[in-house]
Amino acid sequence: MTILSIAFAARVHKRTLAWSNRPVETQERVFQYLIKNARDTAFGTEHRFRSVKTYDDFKKHVPIRDYEGFKPYIDRMMSAEENVLWKGKPLYLSKTSGTTSGVKYIPITKESIPNHINSTRNALLSYIHEGGNADFLKGKLIFISGSPELDLTKSIPIGRLSGIVNHHVPAYLRRNQLPTLKTNCIEEWEEKIEAIAEETLREDMSFISGIPPWVQMYFDKLTEKTGKKIKDIFPNFSLFVYGGVNFEPYRNKLEQSIGKKIDSIELYPTSEGFIAYQNSQKENSLLLLLDTGIFYEFIPAAEFFDPNPTRISIKDVELGVNYVIILNTNAGLWGYNLGDTIKFVSKDPFKIIITGRIKHFISAFGEHVIAEEVEKALMEAASEQHAEIVEFTVAPKVSPEVGLPYHEWFIEFHRQPDDLSKFEERLDQSMQKQNIYYRDLIKGHVLQPLKLRVLEKNTFINYMKSKGKLGGQNKVPRLSNTREIADTLVSLVVS
Question: Which neighbouring-strand residues pair with 406?
Fold first, then answer.
């Protein structure tokens, strides 16, 4: 299988070069395909798709919408109406608990399902092509994800994205895939991790995939059972594939648990579409997928909440600008605000980094601090003070009982800094370097330097459990402009 995969990887790499070397033409082709196939849907009729010839035409007829703006159309599909957002009816509805809204039901169609399946495959093939190494396919593979069980009581099957995708894992991977279906269907997350650990403990695991904090739970459980590092339990474990959150805050602890450095691949999958993947071990940026049925739009994050923000396609983006990413897809999403923010770091080919969520920021005083900035500042301070982070979140303290307002950082450490006060000082200095508005507020005595709150062990696991969001695709919000999370965590600060 490894020899065949190397040959297949070369073919996929050639196809990837073909579209990535012609990005604007590729996106124009996708745009025309989308408009043509949706022009006689309910949405296409309402928004005059038959008169849409160009992207400028499209912008005149289709406004930007959040999920809430699509909910009436989703409700019509759930009532068995066809040809609503896309021709026919969806194969599935992906159920997701959004980080900025409640439960969402995102359509996945016959035309869009290859985007979700083939993109992960192509990320692995890209890795194989670059290094010529497919040894990770020789052992057992595990995808730590949500349950694959589907709700079949509605007119359209409903499930978690990871569960839906699990039904489409290629046969050549399924032979070596763990856990078993019975274990994968366990809903209670801690029970599931226990069962996965028992099931895999004596297997030859070579490939592990999942969201970093939940993979860490799995590693902790294995070490608890054996007293060994992961490299000694799984000596052939050589590739970690992840997505959903920035890996860097988790890297030190994960590598310490493993006991050696291994290769990793970052993916950018969402229920709305598979956006990008890391296509080289030589850099951390992600290749934007321009040929998989998604036409992208971008709005500068600084303008997003303006009445008439700039709205552009791939041909007009600039490097280093923080953009909100907007999707138009062959699952029937149009002018859809994904909520994520990205920056382009290359145009040849078009490659991005994920910078955060447009609704996850702190701007109580106009500073507009974003996830990319807090993560960079934390990594700098942790590196200097030899700290290891489990998880963290940040919120403003607008009206303290004494003194000026400040940003309050709640951090759960795996290893505490050598000197907590120096860590706190270095963290604030780095934040001032990352965000000039924050620096000006400190220098102008509008804010006082940030305050660090050290949390008890397992605080974030218990918090997510209390919200019914432990495991699966769920993530802890790193930033909030309100005190909803912070006020819950205050009582768990280590004195």
Answer: 397
Torsion, CA 384, CA 389, CA 391, CA 395, rounded to 10: -30
Kindly report which listed range (29-38, 241-250, 338-347, 396-405) carries the lowest average pLDDT score. 241-250
Nearest to 342 by CA among 234, 230, 266, 397: 266
Task: Report the sign of the C-alpha dihedral through residues 73, 337, 209, 219, in that order.
Answer: negative
CA distance 300 to 304: 6
371-492 CATH choice from 3.30.70, 3.40.50, 3.30.300, 3.40.190: 3.30.300
Quick one: CA dihedral 72, 78, 84, 90, positive or negative?
positive
Mean per-residue pLDDT of the chain = 90
Every domain of the chain and the residues it spans: 1-359, 371-492
Residue type, 322: N
Q: What is the pLDDT of residue 212?
A: 86
Each residue's pLDDT tens digit, 434-458: 888 898 889 888 899 999 999 998 8
Q: What is the largest CA-CA distance in the chain?
A: 67
Q: End-to-end alpha-carbon separation of the chain, Å?
A: 56
pTM comes to 0.83
Please give the CATH topology (third level) of the domain spanning 1-359: Rossmann fold (3.40.50)
CA dist 220 → 225, 229, 257, 295 (Å) = 9, 9, 7, 41
Closest CA to 211 of 172, 254, 178: 254
Categorize the per-residue pLDDT at 169 as very low, low, confident or very high, splitting at 50, 70 and 90: confident
Residue 90 CA to residue 477 CA, distance in Å, equals: 30
Q: How would DSSP label each residue in 120-146?
A: HHHHHHHHHHHH---GGGSSEEEE--S
| 371-492 and 1-359 share a CATH fold | no
Q: How confident is the model at residue 472 (pLDDT cuts 50, 70, 90)?
A: low
The string of DSSP codes covering 199-229 is HHTTS-EEEEES-HHHHHHHHHHHHHHHSS-
- Cα(30)–Cα(43) distance, integer angstroms: 18
- The token pair at 365 is 């005083």
